[in-house]
Amino acid sequence: MTGHPTKRLVQQQFGKNPTGYVTSVTHAHGSDLARLVELIQPQPDWLILDVATGGGHTAGIFAPYVKRVIASDLTFSMLAAARQHLSRLDLRNVACQQLDAEAIPCRNGSVDLVTCRVAAHHFPAPQQFVIEAARVTRVGGLVAVIDQIVPPDRKAARYVNALERLRDPSHAWAYSLSRWMKFFAEAGLEVTHTESFERRHQITEWADRMHCTPEITLRLRVMLTQAPERAAEWLRPELHPQGDGTFSIHQGLLIGRKV
Amino acid sequence: MTDSAKAEPIDRDMLEILRCPVAVRYTDRGSDPGRLELVARPNGDWWLTCADSGCKYPIRDGIPVMLVEEGEKWKATEVDALPPIASIFKD
């Protein structure tokens, strides 16, 4: 186990049900995966490092296009499940490594592309991850991040993060797209592309995926009901008086080139 | 089959990329700090050791455990005295 409390929580949380992330429809079949490949246009001689690979879906979608992929994760059992999944796909150019996104064990400038999809909100210091990603990327290489984003308004951002953390204690913090762009710029990455997308979620299904108790699910529902104006504009909750409801989670996609 | 003849869990290309996550940041060990050596133990275990930092990283079921905490745990342990990897990880 790693020393940082949030990292320990991540290992516990994802170690509980690693195969769930392999089979998860949200993680395995997100349209953002195809979009990422379309935008990146991976080349046959590339080495890719996929950080926090989870079920191995990003590593798996890129592997057929490139020379080699390193699928990495903080949680060993998650990696073991990802390896099994990738082996079933007969992807023989994927190697697995257990590593911390904030201390990447690679030589400077050795990687053509670093990817990290829907994971950085678990990192205690995502800016340190971006610095590390930039360090291991060759000049001209790319860093691509997809992650949850929050509104620029600070109070609304805090509210959205509190909602996420109530559901999943290993959620560290989600940042605004503009803050991510600042992380990239500070690490020497020229942002070449950004986009964001909104996804609607059913409250109960969303809570159940994290095995929330009925009490926590109720509190999530109350938070959505009582969201202050700016947070509500972002979350856009639609609550049914007698039952479930839906709301929005936003994700940002950033690509940066090392200069 | 002798231990040294067992298939290495990491190929040479990967060793050219992998570095000790502690020593890779050193600024006083030349232009490429943190190089790792692949070491086979008589019991069939494999470790990655770093001369620059002294850190040692176990290869668990074919997966290098490249966590700083893990590598630093074995700094003071000589290679010959490293424990069986199966005994380190109970989870």
Descriptors:
heterodimer, A: 259 residues, alpha/beta, 8-stranded mixed sheet, B: 91 residues, alpha+beta, 4-stranded antiparallel sheet, 16% strand, globular, disordered N terminus
Rg of Cα set of chain A: 18 Å
Strand content of chain B: 15-25%
Gap between N and C termini of chain A, in Å? 35 Å
Poorly predicted spans of chain A: none
- CA(first)-CA(last) distance of chain B: 30 Å
Q: Trace the largest sheet of chain B across and list its strands.
A: 1-2-3-4
Shape of chain A: globular
Q: Extract low-pLDDT stretches of chain B.
A: 1-5
Task: Give the topology string of chain B: H per helix, E per strand.
Answer: HEEEEHH
How many individual helices of chain A? 12
- Mean pLDDT reading of chain A: 93
Counting DSSP H or I runs of 4 or more residues, the number of helices of chain B is: 3
Explain what you see.
The complex is a heterodimer of chains A (259) and B (91). Chain A has 259 residues and is of the alpha/beta class. Helix content of chain A is 43%, strand content 25%. Chain A contains 12 helices and 8 strands. Chain A has helices at residues 5-16, 18-23, 25-28, 31-40, 57-62, 76-88, 126-136, 154-167, 177-186, 203-208, 214-225, 229-235; strands spanning 47-51, 68-73, 94-98, 111-117, 137-149, 189-202, 238-239, 245-258. The model of chain A has no long low-confidence stretch (mean pLDDT 93). With 91 residues, chain B is an alpha+beta fold. Chain B is 18% helix and 16% strand. Chain B contains 3 helices and 4 strands, in the order αββββαα. Chain B has helices at residues 12-17, 68-73, 85-88; strands at 37-40, 46-49, 56-60, 63-64. Chain B has a 4-stranded antiparallel sheet with strand order 1-2-3-4. Chain B starts with 11 loop residues before the first helix and ends with a helix. The A-B interface holds A 1-3, 15, 47, 68, 70, 74, 76-77, 79-80, 83, 95-100, 103-108, 110-111 and B 10, 13-14, 16-22, 24, 32, 34, 57, 60-69, 89, 91.
